[in-house]
Amino acid sequence: MPASMKDRVAIVTGGTRGIGLATARSLLDRGATVCITGRSTEQLADALTQLDAGERAIGVAGHAAEAAHQDATVARVMAEFGSVDVLVNGVGINPYYGSTSDLPEDVAIKMFRTNVLAALAWFTRCEQAWMGEHGGSVVNLSSAGAYRGGPLLGSYGITKAAMIRLTEQLALEKAPRRIRVNAVAPGTVRTKFAAQFWEGNEEAAAAAYPLGRAGEPEDVAEAIAFLASDDASWITGQTLAIDGGLLLTTLVDSLA
């Protein structure tokens, strides 16, 4: 039986849909109290309705890369629940498809700010508010694209590779404070974010994977919940590939 997360409080950024929403549900199923974030108040309300967890789930609207939103979210969680034991950095953007050498500078800055620097900022706030004195667990969302290049997603993959390195560094630095930091690296998952890689082309997308299918949000969510829980109490600084065997192959075009 999975370790109980009763009395644990988690923040899941980007928790209104896809992997983030499935992660919130998995953490709730283990007994945790969860705060999800998202940019749209309507999507937050819909997600909370789907989670149907009453007072054990709240939502805070805002842009994940903005300091004011980060401060407001952590402050509300501390005020309402008294701790921040788990942080899941689930937010990521990919506004550019094409050659990395043609990546506009402003787009590159936006990607790194959201995909990498925001994760560090969320970590810092959670550490200052609670984890620095009490320990905790952080799970970052990377990508199988961090390990291999491709014709369209190279720039996105670079940010996700940086996420892996950030995970390792924070894990090393914060281990004495009993803060574990890990990451997951999914392949193509059937979410709106990755729709162009599977929607309307599901048979071909599935064929790219040795296990014969693209991923589901729950595949990733359950791994995140495991890493966040005491079941993984002696695991830190690791990145778990959740990719249906894709990284065992030489295929790169379908990495998401």
TrEMBL record:
The lineage of its organism: Bacteria, Bacillati, Actinomycetota, Actinomycetes, Sporichthyales. This is SDR family oxidoreductase. It comes from Longivirga aurantiaca. Belongs to the short-chain dehydrogenases/reductases (SDR) family. SUPFAM superfamilies: NAD(P)-binding Rossmann-fold domains (SSF51735). InterPro entries: NAD(P)-bd_dom_sf (IPR036291), Sc_DH/Rdtase_CS (IPR020904), SDR_fam (IPR002347).
